[in-house]
Design brief:
Strand content: under 5%
Structural class: mainly alpha
Distance between the termini: 19 Å
Order of helices and strands: HHHEEHHHHHHHHHHHHHHHHHH
Helix content: over 70%
Radius of gyration: 21 Å
Number of helices: 21
Length: about 500
């Protein structure tokens, strides 16, 4: 039993150990490009990712640490993609951070610590463990946003992120305390049983669910808890923006499945209604506000709000009239959507960083004018990412949207059919601001004709990133099957 306890948390132990090692090694690094620290961080991420993939292939579910930790295929698959997201972010961020004097050991050690928080969130089977993981991730991200201390916009973004994040954490913690008060347990399995027996006070439970969903909605950036997203995305250094926009979204999804599905499925009729409101408002506000933006990072922030709204539609179709037959299909579609959204987002912000140079951020849409004349490769890759976010075939964004819509329509419920039609209409409106970026790159005259110098490693990864968006769109079956397998195993336990 003790051996199983440690086996379940080997990836987290390795991450914590290597985050400390990276911080110590960096004290003796004199290379301004931080090559030893950078390589050590990537090797750590590769090792931890390989462990999660091996555990996923094992296909087993184990409970450890007095059932406070669960190791199952869903957690390991999401953790693997979180490792990939952080690794790609660091590859993109290195030249960007170097030109802005933030390429320090703290960037690498804090990135690893944020991933540690993500791993804890994905493997938590207890309210306190989940909250611990959330705080480890959040505190690391607050510090990363504030790394550029001499930059007013970054400091302001860090303050907004910290203050609003603290409020959201308070919401979540208060909701968890209500659950504990109603059920007498912090263990998700015991909470599930208590709700199923009907012994708990329903009013207290629903009150707790309101606060828990509010806290989770903040991490997704869903309306009306989206206030921080545009300001933080725009104000933070682009490297920090990508660290916020990538792996933490995967963690938020995993925590949502753990809490709402594995713990509070008996209250699905209540939290699904809340998610419907959040998703509809996010689709409307995100898509309409993005049209008015001229700053690309701010536009992508509103795009994120809309994309999270679309993903939540998958979560609201899991339980229909008390029937859970469509749960596996609905949640696996939402999981596929989240993973592929993160893959696409990595590329969009990575390309912004590649085009930036010292003293120039390249974050206005007008900065991409005539990009095809300066670099056909970068223009082509950016077009693929924009098409994917808009949901245009044959990119993976199209299949991801189709999977969520299929989950809605297959419920044979008129309300869910109406939600699907609404989502399609809002996606058509949203396509405008994505296609506007493509139009600017191909049909506008360049304002800057200087050549774009991008490091070969970042350029190669960006090309592979674009290829992945296309290949997953043409051959989505493999990843979809992995998501379905992970969700089925999670629901079975």
């Amino acid at each position: 039993m003790n051996a199983m306890n440690w086996l379940a948390v080997y990836p987290e132990i390795l991450l914590l150990l290597m985050a400390c090692v990276v911080a110590l090694v960096d004290l003796f690094v004199v290379d301004p490009r931080r090559t030893p620290t950078y390589v050590l961080s990537l090797l750590t991420l590769a090792g931890v990712g390989a462990m999660h993939l091996a555990y996923f292939n094992g296909g087993l579910t184990h409970y450890a640490m007095n059932r406070m930790v669960v190791t199952d295929p869903m957690g390991h698959l999401l953790a693997f993609f979180a490792c990939v997201a952080v690794a790609i972010t660091l590859i993109y961020a290195r030249p960007y951070a170097e030109s802005r004097d933030i390429l320090k050991g703290e960037l690498f050690s804090l990135s690893l610590l944020s991933l540690l928080g993500i791993s804890i969130m994905l493997s938590g089977n207890n309210f306190l463990v989940l909250y611990l993981g959330l705080e480890v991730m959040s505190l690391s991200l607050y510090a990363i946003v504030a790394l550029r201390r001499d930059h007013g916009a970054s400091t302001e973004a860090a303050m907004k992120y910290f203050v609003l994040g603290a409020i959201a954490s308070g919401f979540l913690l208060y909701g968890m305390s209500m659950m504990y008060g109603a059920t007498g347990s912090l263990d998700l399995g015991k909470v599930f049983e208590a709700i199923g027996k009907g012994d708990a006070n329903r009013q207290v439970l629903v009150f707790g669910v309101v606060f828990i969903v509010s806290g989770l909605a903040f991490k997704f950036g869903a309306v009306p808890f989206h206030m921080w997203v545009p300001d933080v995305y725009q104000g933070a250094p682009t490297a920090a923006t990508l660290l916020i926009a990538g792996a933490p979204k995967i963690a938020a999804f995993g925590m949502t499945i753990r809490v709402l599905v594995e713990g509070l499925l008996g209250l699905a009729v209540d939290w699904q209604q809340m998610l419907v409101v959040l998703s509809v408002c996010s689709l409307v506000v995100g898509n309409l506000a993005a049209i008015a933006q001229t700053n690309l990072k701010r536009m992508l922030a509103y795009s994120t709000i809309a994309q999270m709204g679309f993903m939540m539609l998958g979560l609201v179709s899991g339980v229909v009239n008390g029937n859970t037959l469509s749960a596996a299909n609905a949640y696996s579609s939402a999981m596929f959507y989240m993973i592929t959204y993160v893959v696409t987002t990595l590329g969009t912000f990575g390309l912004i960083m590649l085009m930036s140079r010292e003293g120039f951020e390249s974050e206005e849409i007008s900065d991409f004018a005539g990009l095809n004349q300066r670099s056909p490769l970068l223009a082509g890759v950016m077009s693929v990412f924009m098409f994917s976010l808009a949901g245009i075939p044959p990119t993976v964004g199209f299949y991801a949207k189709l999977a969520v819509l299929q989950a809605l329509v297959s419920t044979n419920d008129s309300f869910h059919l109406g939600l699907a039609i609404f989502a399609v209409v809002l996606s058509l409106i949203g396509a405008f601001y994505y296609l506007r970026v493509v139009k600017v790159m191909y049909f506008d005259e360049p304002t800057d004709t200087s050549p774009i110098h991008a490091p070969s490693a970042a350029r190669t990864v960006l090309s592979l990133n674009g290829a992945a968006v296309l290949v997953l769109g043409l051959l989505p079956g493999g990843l979809m099957a992995m998501c379905a397998q992970a969700i089925v195993k999670a629901l079975a336990t």
